[in-house]
Amino acid sequence: MRHLRSRFSIATQVLLMQCVLVLLLTVAGSAAAVLQAQATEHAAARRQVLSTAEAVAGAPSTVAALRGKDPTVPLLPETTALEQQAGVDFVVVMTTAGIRFTHPNPALIGKTFVGHIAPAVAGKAFTENYRGSLGPSVRSVVPIRDPQDGGRIIGLVSVGITQHRLSSLFGQQLPLVIGISVAALGLAVLGAYAVGRRVRRQTRGLGPVALAELYEHHDAVMHAMREGLLLLDPEGKLILANDEAVRLLDLPAARTGRTPAELGVDGSLGAVLAGGADVADGIHLTDNRVVTVNQSTARRAGRDLGTVVTLRDRTELQALTDELASVQGFAEALRASNHEAANRLHTVVTLIELDRAAEAVRFATGELAAQQQLVDRLLTAVEEPVLAALVLGKVAQARERGIELGVGEVTAVRDLPLPVTDAVTLIGNLIDNALEAVGGAGGNGETWSGAPKQVWIELSDDASGLSIRVADNGPGIAPERREEVFVRGFTTKAEAGRGLGLALVAQIVKRHGGKAAVSEADGGGAVFDVSIPRRAGR
């Protein structure tokens, strides 16, 4: 049986089951209609015989005939004519003892009535089913009263319809019942066929086994994917999200049928999902993660089926990239320092050869002392070596670009209120943003106004948390744009694909419950202030 079921498509099985069900319902309905028709005919016959018997019993001619010597003579023609007119099989007038005065069979006149008469003798009309001299019948027995004698019962009248006549009447209605049943069966089969065709189109003609396998494979793939997958309908409402997408976007349990905005996906990612435009390897930020987004419209036979979105987590990769960038910057700083040291060494050697030892000592120790003082100050104040190396690397990198990166007040940074990878991303992006701001402001190490290109950084760590200030004397940020400076994609540069650094800063600050603000520096430029509070348990 299972093998047979697997051979037919879902549509065929639905059609067969519907046909069987319709057939059973039609048979049951037809049987119910037949029984109802029989019951209706029987009830009508009971009403007919009772009303006819009451009419005969109340007729003055009937009472007058019973007062005579031979009631049969006047009553028999009347009852015979009434049987024809009323469509009944017998009208029997009798004495209270049941002796017949009339009967369709003259041979039975004068004989005793076959049936119950006691209730009628007691003055109560009644109707019953009884097998009498003409066979099974529905009959009523009504008392005949003499109004001139105080309503005394002077006789009885019985009117009946045989079962044979009832069957004939029902037989006349049976073809109509059967015709209606056959028509209903035909319409139901046509409807089942139409439903089957629709199901066949929707299921692509697949059988239950094929559909079950397709679902199992689909479910396995959805759970096994290391990428997040979203399916949105043409109206932008969520149809499906796999486990990775739920994790990346922190989607709630009740998510199907809701738009990304209703699910709390906002910012640049929310705008992309709401827009529905095709996107290839777009970088977007959520509250906690950096994700790579690919989005494309799904179409079939020219019909828009919705949007398919894939998400890849780049949070760890971005953190590693930032850390690698800091290491590379430190390496570049070492290379630059080595290059400068070689130049200074050649200068010192030349001064010694020129017999100018005093000038050689002053030249060799002057700048070296300043550099060593900065290194000693950072390594003493900042116990995290990666953070200290980041700042030193940025100082050397700035020097190569003709920018003076000054390290202002640095208090003891011993217990960071955030992971060191986040601190590297946070400080590194703030410094890079400042270096880029002053880097294009002019030439020969000066801004357009002629002032030296300068960037300042200050670090403060106390019981309340970590405070960071990075300032520059670049072009600054217009007051009307300071609200959007931390939004993904904001940049003052013309190159495409920029504007991620400050968005990462905003993400880290929000994740750790901090604050970030931008203001105007004295004399022009921008000042970025970031504070990360120290939470309980860290």
Automatic annotation (TrEMBL):
The keyword Transmembrane helix applies. SMART domains: HATPase_c. It catalyses: ATP + protein L-histidine = ADP + protein N-phospho-L-histidine. One of its GO terms (molecular function) is ATP binding. One of its GO terms (cellular component) is plasma membrane. GO terms for biological process: phosphorelay signal transduction system. Residues 426-536 form the Histidine kinase domain. The lineage of its organism: Bacteria, Bacillati, Actinomycetota, Actinomycetes, Catenulisporales. Its EC number is 2.7.13.3. InterPro entries: 2C_sensor_his_kinase, HATPase_C_sf, HATPase_dom, His_kinase_dom, PAS, PAS-like_dom_sf, sCache_3, Sensor-like_sf. It is a multi-pass membrane protein. Keywords: ATP-binding, Cell membrane, Kinase, Membrane, Nucleotide-binding, Phosphoprotein, Transferase, Transmembrane, Transmembrane helix, Two-component regulatory system. It is found in: Cell membrane. The chain crosses the membrane at residues 174-195. This is histidine kinase. Its main location: membrane. Signal peptide: none annotated. Gene3D superfamilies: Histidine kinase-like ATPase, C-terminal domain, PAS domain.
